[in-house]
Structures are given as C-alpha cells and as structure tokens.
Write a structure and sequence with these properties.
Layout lengths: L4 E6 L5 E2 L3 H13 L3 E5 L2 E5 L9 E4 L5 E5 L7 E3 L9 E2 L26
Parallel strand pairs: 1-2, 1-3, 3-5, 4-6
Antiparallel strand pairs: 7-8
C-alpha cells in the first residue's frame, strides 16, 4: 500500500502507549480515518474489556506468540430500575463496577437470548 499510515501500540516506545483494548482501538480508528494502513502491536499482554472493532483497510500485526490479547473477567449488575419499553438508557444497581472502555451485554432472562444487546 502506498502512503499508508503505520501506528504502533505498546507499553513503551510506541506511538500510542498502553496495554488495553482502548489503545488498540484508538490506533485502529486513527489508521482508518487516514484511509488505511497498519497497527503494529509490540510484544506484551493487552487486557481486553471489549471486542476490537475492526475497520476496512486496516491491518493489525502482532509479534507472534509474544503478543497476547487477554480477555478479562466479566462483571455484572442487576438493574436498579426497569424503565420499560422504548427507553434508551439503563440504571444499574452496581454502576461502580463499570468504566469507560468496557463492552457491555444486556440480556433478559425471559427473552431466550433473542433480544440481547451488545
């Protein structure tokens, strides 16, 4: 690819410094906004609290077995209120368990999985 952007992600000496899905996603989004290119992950373990949302014309390259994407344990919370049909927000009983950058999965034990939201 001519004139493609290359962005590195790692614990040090990288264009984007960090070890979570948030830093990898920032690199993917920046490369996609440039029109394509490559995200190079340095060797290390990256903590994934959400899926990586891939983009067209972006290649992700690690260092083989030295680059590990590790899914962290899930957390859960019951709702503190049931707002009913048509609402676009939720109220959690234990909101402190969550932070920006985490993926969420909302389900209803009575829906049989058909109406789950990610």
């Amino acid at each position: 690819m001519l004139n493609t952007l290359v962005i590195t992600v790692g614990l040090s000496g990288a264009n984007i410094v960090g070890h979570t899905n948030r830093e990898i996603q920032a690199a993917v989004d920046r490369v996609a906004a440039h029109g394509g290119g490559e995200v190079r992950l340095h060797a290390g373990t990256y903590d994934m609290e959400d899926s990586l949302h891939l983009r067209s014309k972006v290649k992700i390259v690690g260092q083989g077995e030295r680059t590990i994407l590790r899914k962290l344990s899930s957390v859960s919370s019951p709702l503190s209120a049931d707002l009913g049909y048509g609402h676009h927000d939720i109220s959690l009983a234990e909101a402190e368990k969550f932070h920006i950058g985490m993926g969420i999965h909302i389900h209803d034990d009575r829906s049989g999985g058909f109406y789950d939201t990610v």
